[in-house]
Amino acid sequence: MELLKKLCKIHAPSGEEEVLRNFLIDYIKNNQSNWKTKPTLYFGKGFQDNLILVFGKPNVAVFAHMDSIGFTVKYNNEIIKIGGPKTNEGITLIGKDSKGDIEGKIFKKDKKIYIEFDRIIDRGTSLTYKIDFRENDDFIQSAYIDNRLGIYNTLEIAKNIENGILVFSTWEEHGGGSVGYLGKFIQEKYNVSKALISDITWITEGVKHGKGCVISLRDSGIPRKSFVNKIINIIKANKIPFQLEVEDAGGSDGNGLQKSDYPWDWCFIGAAEDNVHSPDEKVHKKDIESMIKIYNLLLKEL
Questions:
Q1: 266, 196 contact by CB (below 8 A)
Q2: I need a labelling partner for 91 at 20 to 30 A (CA). Which of 23, 46, 52, 145 fits?
Q3: Which CATH number characterizes residue 138's domain?
Q4: Which domain holds residue 51?
Q5: How many structural domains compose the chain?
Q6: Which of 129, 150, 165 is the last residue of a domain?
Q7: How confident is the model at residue 269 (pLDDT cuts 50, 70, 90)?
Q8: Which of 103, 129, 155 is the last residue of a domain?
Q9: Residue 36 phi/psi, 5° resolution?
Q10: Among candidate residues 154, 152, 117, 116, the one with its CA nearest the CA of residue 133
């Protein structure tokens, strides 16, 4: 879990994914010699802070968003949300502005949210949760498991990919916006129109810890049933544990693909966590194991 711990600690809220993208580029260049297939990398001009890896002759693309929730400093140390973070008083936030490092606790006053700090922080400074990464025999717990675990999954499956595309996207937590043009590039250059969404979902009354990775039948978006059924049949035939999810809220890069001008078949597949969008997100290790097995299988079978 050391790689996941490193990923969780990288400051990359929506709009500031460049640092994480650069970490991934360095990681890939340092490790690809041990992978089954060496990928072609696309980034830089025309891709903003996104990153695409192409292996062999791809048939499926895996999307994992790099950004996290967080906060932006407004005026007089008032803070406003990036995405939908929990804002309980006493939560510790960290960041950095022109005057140095920042660490302070959330407090509330007159229905507004503030960070407690001994000076005025530069306007526009982003803040994220302070990381306390915990691990035992069964669970991992930390801020930003969503979606650093989705990224960890893609880096694990990258070791064995012969044919496929890995996409590291931006802005997902705050409305999305990058997967439309990334999808356009992928379809026009590689004629790939099947997507798996490597992201993290919720523990609910119907989804439990340790029962396997979650296949989402729907959330705020509805994928094409025939594609999802094909995925479920492949997984069942290979006897990998999984759970089915039906929700009426939440979304992912899959929603962005569905709303684009290109015909995508997509399915959200990810481990479920407790304490969503808080400093204490919690995932069972068996569900991580199931997630990695399912992605390795589907990249070969779809």
A1: yes
A2: 23
A3: 3.40.630.10
A4: 2-68+134-301
A5: 2
A6: 129
A7: very high
A8: 129
A9: -65, -40
A10: 152
Q: Is the pTM of this model over 0.90?
A: yes
User: How many CA atoms does the CB half-sphere of 35 hold within 13 Å?
Assistant: 24
At 262 the pLDDT is: 97
Contacts of residue 77, defined as CB under 8 A and 6 or more positions apart, other chains included, come to 114, 115, 116, 117, 120, 121
Task: Look up residue 59 and give its two tokens.
Answer: 């048939």
Q: Are residues 144 and 192 in the same domain?
A: yes
**pLDDT tens-digit readout, 282-302:** 999 999 999 999 999 999 999
Residues 6+ apart with CB under 8 A from 86: 277, 278, 279
- Percentage of the chain lying above the pLDDT 70 cut: 100
How many Cβ atoms are within 10 Å of 212's Cβ, its own excluded? 23
CA–CA distance, 125 with 199 (Å, rounded to integer)? 26
Backbone angles phi, psi at 103, to 5 degrees: -150, 125
In 3D space, the residue among 98, 275, 116 whose CA is nearest the CA of residue 200 turns out to be: 275
Segment 216-223 mean pLDDT: 96
For residue 90, the tally of other CB atoms under 10 A from its CB is: 8
Residues 186 and 253: beta-carbon distance below 8 Å:
no
Q: How many CB atoms lie within 10 A of CB 6?
A: 14
Instruction: pLDDT band for 33, please (50, 70, 90 cuts).
Output: very high
Mean pLDDT of 136-163: 98
